[in-house]
Specification:
alpha+beta; Glutaredoxin; two-stranded parallel sheet; 6 helices; 43% helix; 14% strand
């Protein structure tokens, strides 16, 4: 969400937002329609065999196999210049390191144009994550991380809880910015 709502910033640094998931193309088309993700290139990788497993971003044990959260930056030569890999499905990071890595490449601004799904948008979007649930989800994450962080005593665990709280706050800020663009 955060990177998808800041696509102008990413395109300005010569980058493109690509999101890979185990969802099939129809599900991605539904999510794109529901969320208005016009400038995020969605890549379907059911089973994770084409993209996720080779990148080490696949958890075969969780819900029959899901993508691990990851943010990667590749240079024009295809070399990976930045990687953040989440520890589990809820683990995200802030975007500052992504922007630093992109800016460091010194690429000219680009405009890959809007993404169009290759599959038809399903008629029934009821089973797709609703934008109205996003804020509730991340407010719960923020509150839970703050509560748990207050109970922990060792510095490393407290730092992880603080990091998760900050990620939740950044996600909520991006959600508020996105909501303001859709009226």
């Amino acid at each position: 969400m955060r990177l998808a709502t800041n696509y102008d910033r990413i395109h300005g640094a010569g980058g493109e937002v690509v999101a890979v998931s185990v969802d099939d193309e129809g599900r991605q088309a539904g999510m794109s329609a529901r969320w208005g993700l016009t400038h995020t290139h969605l890549v379907a990788d059911p089973g994770g065999e084409q993209v996720l497993q080779p990148l080490g971003l696949f958890d075969p044990e969780e819900r029959g196999g899901i993508a691990l959260p990851g943010m990667l930056v590749f240079g024009p030569d295809g070399d990976e210049v930045y990687r953040y890999q989440g520890r589990d499905f809820a683990d995200r990071t802030t975007d500052d390191d992504i922007y630093t890595a992109l800016d460091g490449l010194g690429l000219p601004a680009g405009d890959p144009g809007p993404w169009t799904p290759s599959a038809a948008v399903p008629e029934d979007l009821d089973r797709f994550f609703r934008p109205s649930d996003y804020g509730v989800y991340f407010r719960g994450n923020r509150f839970g991380a703050a509560a748990i962080g207050g109970r922990l005593t060792d510095p490393e665990s407290r730092a992880i809880a603080r990091e998760h709280r900050k990620m939740s706050e950044a996600s909520l800020e991006a959600w508020d910015a996105w909501r303001s663009t859709i009226g």
